[in-house]
Amino acid sequence: MSNKIHHQIVVVGGGAAGLGIAARLLRASGIRDVAIIEPSDKHYYQPLWTLVGGGVVAREASVRPMAGLIPKGAQWIQDAAAKFFPEENRLTTRDGRDIGYDYLVVAPGLQIDWHKIKGLPEALGKNGVCSNYSYDTVNSTWENIRNFKGGNAVFTFPPPPIKCAGAPQKIMYLAEHYLRKQGIRDKSRVVYYCATPTIFSAPKYATALVDQVVKPRGIEVHYKHSLVEIRGQSKEAVFQNLDTGETFVQPYDMIHVVPPMSAPDFIKQSPLANEAGWVDVSKETLQHVRYPNVFSIGDASSLPTSKTAAAVRAQAPVLEANLLAAIQGQPPKTSYDGYTSCPLVTGYGRLILAEFDYDLKPCETFPFDQGKERWSMYQLKRWVLPVIYWEGLVKGYKWPRFGA
Ligand code: FAD
Predict the structure, then answer these.
(1) What percent of the chain has pLDDT over 90?
(2) Gap from CA of 251 to ligand 1 centroid (Å)
(3) How many angstroms separate the CA atoms of 14 and 22, rounded?
(4) How many CA atoms, within 13 angstroms, populate the side-chain half-sphere of residue 224?
(5) Sorting pLDDT into bands at 50, 70 and 90, what band is 3?
(6) Region 253-282: what's the mean pLDDT?
(7) 113-261 has which fold?
(8) From ligand 1's centre to the CA of 392, what distance in Å?
(9) Which class is 4-110+263-337 in CATH?
(10) Which tens digits make up the pLDDT trace of 221-246?
(11) Distance from C-alpha of 272 to C-alpha of 183, rounded to nearest angstrom
(12) So what's the pLDDT on residue 29?
């Protein structure tokens, strides 16, 4: 059997972005041949991991078999894309397939670089070290929060970009709330070390978080600090001050670590990458800047917005319209404004729904000030957004663009 195949449209990645865009394209007239290259037999609804780590939802609710989500009419190639040859309109895979395409959509998400923090891979899940950033480790977060008896509860945010820049602090707010409910808050320090100079990129929500949450709840925040080493045996974390370069040791009783992230290595090493390693697309049209039959969407793309599933929802119709225009030999039809959203869980039953664009300007959906903590917005995250994700986003249907 020949390993050479050809499809009209090849989508790399069956995540939030890849599944949704494949489904959309298959519904468009004249598109009959879409293949999805995706190695995993499972799909994860990652935004739920905040609530899993906070003990609200079982982690099993965040996973579904990939086979049930591949859109009808798409061909699933269960393999991993490995090398791109965009001059020849083809790519090769880990298992040796050679796949040609007329149009390519690149959506393999980003890569978690656990190994970039010394001692982290060995310590994860033990000695008070936990992380919401993978299915395998998310249960360790709730175990640590539940068993915390007082002392130092430490939370980290690495140098960006990361996916869901709000997630590192959401879990801290849940933990802090839990400690108060247990009556042990006065025996605990809640400390946040973040590599960025502010708590959140969009100023409106940064101010809201500091004034409504961080200050009144006595959370210590250290900006421009990055975790460089975990010493699991002695329960010590080594941080670097990014201004002075100095390092120091912070003892912890529990530490929630957000690992560094980057573009997947196979993208970094490909002709599709920009200098930083991301798929080099126009921030307006999502079309590759050198290869007009290549598009990218989601976390792997160079789009300079906060990497979220909510952003994917706003990107998908733009990519769909512009790819279909390209097929008809027309210029791009529409443009992406950088819309992204972050449901900032600030406690059990509280949430600030951030929505903003490339200019970090709020673009809010609801007719009230979303910069205030609200019970209703927490219920939206808990009950409505999962339905929108499973029934809307990954099936490529049009839904309101708030949250994910
Ligand atoms: P993914 O959904 O990560 O999918 C990438 C897919 O590509 C995977 O299926 C993977 O197996 C596949 N792949 C990898 N390598 C290859 C290869 N070589 N070849 C082919 N396929 C490959 N977003 C929100 O909107 N709101 C939130 O509240 C929120 N909270 C979050 C909390 C946490 C803890 C985390 C981890 C993420 C959160 N996100 C949130 C972010 C959101 O999950 C991502 O931005 C979104 O999943 C990105 O979609 P994607 O398709 O680009 O990547």
Answers:
(1) 96
(2) 32
(3) 9
(4) 7
(5) confident
(6) 98
(7) FAD/NAD(P)-binding domain (3.50.50)
(8) 16
(9) alpha beta
(10) 999 999 999 999 999 999 999 999 99
(11) 53
(12) 81
pLDDT category of residue 398 using cuts at 50, 70 and 90: confident
Strands (E), 196-305: 220-223, 225-231, 236-241, 247-251, 254-256, 261-262, 294-296
Percentages helix, strand, coil for the chain (3-state, rounded to 5) are 30, 30, 40
| C-alpha 62 to ligand 1 mean position (Å) | 12
Q: What are the strands, taking DSSP E only, across 14-139?
A: 34-37, 42-44, 63-65, 74-77, 81-85, 90-93, 98-106, 111-112, 129-130
Answer yes or no: are the C-beta atoms of 171 and 50 closer than 8 Å. yes
Please state the rounded mean pLDDT for residues 60-67. Answer: 98
Give the residue-averaged pLDDT of 308-316.
Answer: 97
For residue 332, how far is its CA from the centre of ligand 1 (angstroms)? 26
Which residue has tokens 């921030």?
Answer: 283
Domain ranges of the chain: 4-110+263-337, 113-261
The pLDDT assigned to 403 comes to 59
The residues annotated as belonging to the active site are 164, 342
Residue 333 CA to ligand 1 center (angstroms) comes to: 27
Question: Given the CA of residue 311, which atom of ligand 1 is nearest to it?
Answer: 25
The protein residue whose alpha carbon is closest to atom 41 in ligand 1 is 308
Contact between residue 105 and residue 12 where contact means Cβ atoms under 8 Å apart: yes
Ligand 1 atom with the smallest distance to the CA of 341 is 25
Q: Which residue has its alpha carbon closest to ligand 1 atom 8?
A: 15
The answer, yes or no, to whether residue 218 has pLDDT greater than 80, is yes
> Any residues with Cβ below 6 Å from ligand 1, and which?
12-18, 37-40, 46-47, 49-50, 80-81, 107-109, 132-133, 163-164, 167, 264, 266, 298-300, 307-310, 312, 343, 404
Whose alpha carbon is nearest atom 11 of ligand 1? 40
Range from 27-31, 255-259, 325-329, 380-384 carrying the lowest mean pLDDT: 27-31
Q: To test the ligand 1 pocket, which listed residue (113, 308, 377) has its Cβ within 8 A of the most ligand atoms?
A: 308
Alpha carbons 9 and 320: distance in angstroms, whole number: 12
Q: What is the mean pLDDT of the chain?
A: 97
Same fold, 4-110+263-337 and 113-261: yes
Of ligand 1's listed atoms, the one at least distance from the Cα of 340 is 25
